[in-house]
Amino acid sequence: MSDGLAAIAARIRDARRITILTGAGVSAASGVPTFRGPGGLWRSYRPEELATPEAFRRDPRLVWEWYDWRRGLIARCEPNAAHHVLARWSAQGTTLITQNVDGLHERAGARDVVRFHGSLWRLRCAEECGQPEWEDASVPLEILPPPCPACGGLARPAVVWFGEPIDPDVLERCARAIDCDLFLSIGTSSVVYPAAGLVHAARRQGAFTVEINPEATEAAAAVDAALSMPAEVALPQLEALGVRA
Ligand code: ZN
Fold first, then answer.
1. Number of domains in the chain
2. Is the peptide bond prior to 145 cis by the omega test (within 30 degrees of 0)?
3. Cα 130 to middle of ligand 1, angstroms
4. What is the spatial distance between Cα 164 and Cα 243, in angstroms, rounded to a whole number?
5. What pLDDT score does 190 carry?
């Protein structure tokens, strides 16, 4: 067991308020594809060509076929050890913010997850008729593109697309969450926005900041401590050290 791990375990044990931000690295061990790079192509499209309001306006059925395919892939994935530890910590009062849209934190039982980029399993009315966002976990979806149950217009995935702002309610919850003793950034780089923005803001407000990431090289200057380990390895070890268990 590394010194770094023991020191971070002690920080977790002593902290009064902990906020955790997760990214794609947490879901990698569950087999969730990142949809970046050559392996992420669907038909011949890059995510940047489909996850935009313009693409949806141009061809909502095409965009929905892509989401339906992604939902099908992710439905076959299971939460891993990292999701399970974080779910237990969330039940003890840790605030969990995720950039992931895969829903695996929720499937592991995490509570009150702040979904920075929304969720693949939630839909909202593209016509903005006033119908509140709803959940639909059916795979495949019954009708493509799915309709809004209130107005019969087009529904869209309740995710944040390229060029769209983050939900103001989510930003408000994040603003409250960065007021913490300890901020852990897990499976996401602390040098890339938006993770970096939250980590830096928490650090400015006095939080001790930690990054847990297999490649933590560049983050050394951005955080107070870095663990170069995959989340599904680091988190069970931290939990085994007796912290918040
Ligand atoms: Zn509607």
1. 2
2. yes
3. 6
4. 38
5. 77
* pLDDT on residue 150: 98
Q: Is 200 a catalytic residue?
A: no
| pLDDT given at position 1 | 46
CATH number at residue 195: 3.40.50.1220
Q: Which of 83, 105, 117, 200 is catalytic?
A: 117
| pLDDT for res 114 | 98
Q: How far is the CA of 155 from the centre of ligand 1 (A)?
A: 7
**Whether residue 205 is found in the same domain as residue 112:** yes
Intervals of the chain under pLDDT 70: 1-3, 35-40, 216-220, 243-245
Q: Write out the residue range of the structural domain in which residue 236 sits.
A: 1-31+79-117+166-245
For 18-48, what is each residue's pLDDT tens digit?
Answer: 999 999 999 999 999 876 666 667 888 888 8
| CA distance readout (Å), 107 to 78, 79, 103, 224 | 8, 7, 6, 31
Q: 145 CA to middle of ligand 1, Å?
A: 13
Instruction: Examine the fold and report which residue of 159, 189, 212 is the final residue of a domain before the chain moves on.
Output: 159
Residues 93 and 18 in one domain: yes
Phi/psi region, residue 177 (left: phi>0; alpha: psi -120 to 50; beta: rest), is alpha
